[in-house]
């Protein structure tokens, strides 16, 4: 992985993006410490993330038992 400082990244962003598009990962540093990483978009599994989000939405929909009023909840709580 190539490392570049923030100043160089700012001045050579277009060239760095070309490298990233070619598959290289680039770490951007500030005062020698890593602060960001440029990675190819194809390296991220976008479809997997969309599937996970859909699964979470399905779980959330199943968790809803229906609209209960506050009065119904209080009454049910008093029974026990």
Set down the secondary structure blueprint:
Layout: E1 2-5, H1 6-11, H2 13-21, E2 26-30, E3 33-38, H3 46-63, H4 70-78
Parallel strand pairs: 1-2
Antiparallel strand pairs: 2-3
Describe the structure.
With 80 residues, this protein is of the alpha+beta class. The protein has a single domain (1-80), classed as 3-Layer(aba) Sandwich (YefM-like fold). It contains four helices and three strands. It has a three-stranded mixed β-sheet with strand order 1-2-3. Strand 2 and strand 3 form a beta hairpin. The longest helix has 18 residues, at 46-63. The N and C termini lie far apart (62 Å).
| Portion in helices | 40-55%
Radius of gyration: 24 Å
In sequence order, what are the helices and strands, one letter per element?
A: EHHEEHH
Q: Given the helix and strand composition, which structural class is it? A: alpha+beta
β-strand number: 3
In summary, what is this structure?
With 80 residues, this protein is an alpha+beta fold. The protein contains 4 helices and 3 strands, in the order βααββαα.
Main traits of this protein?
single chain, 80 residues, alpha+beta, YefM-like fold, 3-stranded mixed β-sheet, 4 helices
